[in-house]
Amino acid sequence: MAYSMYTKPLRGTAKGYIICMKKTIIHLLACAFLASACASAPKTTASQRDEDYYNQGMAQMETKFYSEALKNFEDLRDKFPLSPYSVLALLRMGECQFLDKNYIEAQYQFDNFRRLHPSHAQVDYAMFMAGMCQFRQILDYDRDQTASLAAVKQLEMLVEVFPNSPYSAKALCKIAEAKKHIAEYEFFVGSFYLKKNNYLGAYTRFDKLLLQYPNSIERDRVLLAMGKTCLYDGQTDKGKRILQLLLLKYPDGACAADAEKLLAMY
């Protein structure tokens, strides 16, 4: 028989009354605990569906809550691995990392998308974004250009595989910018060698620059530096020929006057 606050004491004794009250208190505490547990338990809502995980993540991205959005997309992939939204979530995870300037993590997600879904319609986009992850890490021309080289490689692969993709047109612009950084870096290093009287090192850099990146830097600048290097190194005839070529090709260029002065001196 269940006890309540209104149960009579056992056999009219104080002992029975005490036992009754203890059981009543225990019963009330148990009810309170269950009520509290029900109130704090997460409600089963539509957010547990794959589409709603995705939409919630997209909404969080729009408000720049990238960490929260990333968590939603990760949960979506964990709970609904076969859902088409799970495939798209992988791209969105890359975008969250990219927008949060975590470029290494972002590239991993985009590369992973291309690896797992090579025939997907958005593979070209994933390749473009992987290249942009490298592009965003490019440093000033007087510092290491590993990221520039990696960006060029990644984006050129996109152009080769998807020449008609709209992302390939954008990639060509970024390739040109990255190559300009590389060219300026090579010129910077060559000029440094020239100042240090390392004429062989300087000439090698300038020559490599013209061979590999002829459209990424003003050629008359490079020719002037090459001619100067040869003259300083005692290769007078070769230096003069280079300077004469500069004047022939770029008679009105910014380096023409300096080339004429050097020729008059030698």
Describe this structure in words.
It contains twelve helices and no strands. Helix 4 packs antiparallel against helix 5 and helix 6 runs antiparallel to helix 7. The longest helix has 30 residues. The N terminus is likely disordered.
Q: How does the major sheet shape up? A: none
Coarse shape: elongated
Continuous helix count: 12
* Mean pLDDT over all positions: 87
Percent of residues in beta strands:
under 5%
Helix fraction by DSSP (H/I, runs of at least 4): over 70%
Distance between the termini: 120 Å
Features:
266 residues; mainly alpha; 12 helices; 0% strand; disordered N terminus
List the SSEs and their pairings.
Layout: H1 14-40, H2 50-62, H3 66-79, H4 84-99, H5 103-116, H6 123-135, H7 146-161, H8 166-195, H9 199-212, H10 219-232, H11 236-249, H12 256-265
Helix pairs in contact: 2-3, 2-4, 3-4, 4-5, 5-6, 6-7, 6-8, 7-8, 8-9, 9-10, 10-11, 10-12, 11-12
State the gist of this model:
By secondary structure, the protein is mainly alpha-helical.
